[in-house]
Specification:
By secondary structure, this protein is α/β, with parallel strands linked by helices. It is 34% helix and 15% strand. It folds into 2 domains: 19-43 and 228-281, no CATH class; 49-223 and 286-473, Alkaline Phosphatase, subunit A, CATH 3.40.720.
């Protein structure tokens, strides 16, 4: 018997044997969960889609709080005719509203609408810039969802589930496709204002390996927190520390096969590379003055306009998914003042983003999505800031709202679906959130029924057990 073995106690033997056998079992189980092309050492390796994609990357514009589609995209002459009149009870029977109750009053829009482009899309006067690119957009006016309050509806839109714990849209995409640029995250988040009611859960990986989580970039100051070296430490010092830590992590990975250790190795190395790539990428001073003016962006000033320009730069550099979250669209009151102010923030930069991508030949492979967690009621609610009912707003509405898309694989210059004459319900071509997500994945070359991850004995997917591709909006 070898001398080394004689000095090993029974407890040590079983402990070491259990670790070895356990690592084999764990590695086998985890290997079933990951796509065949994913290696533990390179979890973000670019991977082939299920079929030829129409789009290669996504810019997702989420208006936190839900803008009123009835004041922006969905003009209702009958609702205008009956503005400020009592709503017939049969229209609201069996419907859920977040706050309003009792006798309900119909509310038309106070803003003018006009038709634009060859497709004749009707847009509000609050969106003069977006109106100029109407023929590049597909307006889906028949969206509906399953959740009525902000945080659950935001989670449902992004993860297909109304509560936390499941991966968000961007995490699913990067899990399925990997990245085109190993020096940058595959999935970047930009905020203008505070995050939504669901907070950072919106770009969480849920039960997916954490390497697929969205990374928040900041529009001013240090682009990514803790990216810079501590004072007094050089880049060479950091490299030396990372090499030592990597050796320890690789040893542990070989023993237990935990993909989170592979994530740790990958993210440390990416952070090191990002020190060189990110500051230059986030420096808008290198953009032409004409481009800054087109977006309404200003170097060194955090804003939605800057984020739109940064989104173009990130996509241009190979980032797979960029999500922009813009806050303060929850207008239960004061819609006459607050909605125009918000539209002034976003109208010009969004139109500029579409135009800029098109001029650069990038729009055909970039899918732009604009939307929110739900819509707003055709009913009046609330008071203005002085407690008067002169400037009310609208309550949450999950049964009918508008979302639009442009770019990669989307049929441009059309309006798809419609709501009834008062805007209460979808009247034609309903599109559920699960259908939307199935369609987006399809445009990226992924079958939403095949993009799965086994967790706690079940295969999960973004569309849960639902979802139909919306063929009518595909080019």
């Amino acid at each position: 018997m070898p001398p080394d073995f004689i000095h090993v106690s029974r407890r040590q033997f079983f402990s070491q044997s259990g670790l070895t056998l356990g690592s084999v079992a764990l590695g086998s189980l985890l290997a079933r969960d990951l796509p065949a092309a994913v290696k533990a050492e390179e979890p973000l390796t670019q991977r082939r889609p299920h079929f030829a994609p129409r789009a290669k990357q996504v810019i997702y514009l989420h208006m936190i709080g839900a803008p009123s589609h009835l004041d922006l995209f969905d003009y209702k002459p009958v609702l205008q005719k009956h503005d400020n009149q009592a709503c017939p009870e049969e229209m609201t029977k069996g419907k859920r509203f977040a706050f309003i109750g009792g006798q309900m009053t119909l509310a038309g829009t106070r803003f003018g609408f006009a038709k634009h482009g060859q497709g004749g899309a009707e847009l509000s006067e609050l969106l003069p810039h977006l109106s100029t690119v109407a023929d590049d957009i597909c307006f889906v006016k028949s969206m509906h969802t399953s959740e009525i309050n902000h945080a659950p509806a935001q989670m449902f839109l992004h993860s297909g589930f109304g509560r936390g714990g499941r991966p968000g849209f961007g995490s699913w995409v990067t899990y399925g496709l990997g990245t085109e640029n190993s020096d940058l995250p595959a999935y970047v988040v930009l905020l203008s204002g505070p995050p939504g009611g669901a907070g950072t859960s919106l770009w969480s990986t849920g039960f997916l390996p954490s390497v697929y989580q969205g990374i928040q970039f900041r529009g001013s100051g240090e682009p990514v927190l803790f990216l810079n070296n501590p004072e007094g430490h050089t880049r060479e010092d950091r490299r030396s520390v990372l090499d030592a830590v990597r050796a320890l992590n690789e040893r542990q990975l070989a023993q237990v096969g935990d993909p989170e250790i592979a994530t740790r190795i990958s993210q440390y190395e990416m952070a090191y590379r990002m020190q060189a790539s990110v500051p230059d990428l986030m420096d808008l001073s290198k953009e032409r003055p004409e481009t800054l003016a087109m977006y309404g962006a200003k170097h060194g000033v955090a804003s939605f306009a800057n984020n739109c320009l940064l989104a173009r730069r990130l996509i241009e550099s190979g980032v797979r998914v960029v999500e922009l979250y813009d806050s303060d669209w929850d207008h239960h009151s004061g819609i006459g003042k607050r909605l125009p102010a918000k539209c002034r923030d976003v109208d010009q930069p969004i139109a500029a983003l579409i135009r800029d991508l098109k001029l650069r030949g990038m729009l055909d492979e970039t899918l732009i999505i604009w939307g929110a967690e739900f819509g707003r009621t055709p009913l009046r609610q609330g008071a203005d800031g002085e407690g008067k009912r002169t400037d009310p707003g609208r309550d949450h509405h999950k049964d009918a709202f508008t979302l639009w898309m442009a770019g990669g694989g989307i049929k441009a210059g059309i309006t798809f679906g419609k709501t009834d004459e008062l805007g209460f319900n979808v009247a034609q071509n309903p599109v559920h959130v699960h259908d939307l997500n199935a369609t987006i994945l399809h445009l990226l070359g992924m079958d939403h029924e095949r993009l799965t991850f086994r967790y706690q004995g079940r295969d999960f997917r973004l569309t849960d057990v639902h979802g139909e591709i919306v063929q009518g909006i595909l080019a």
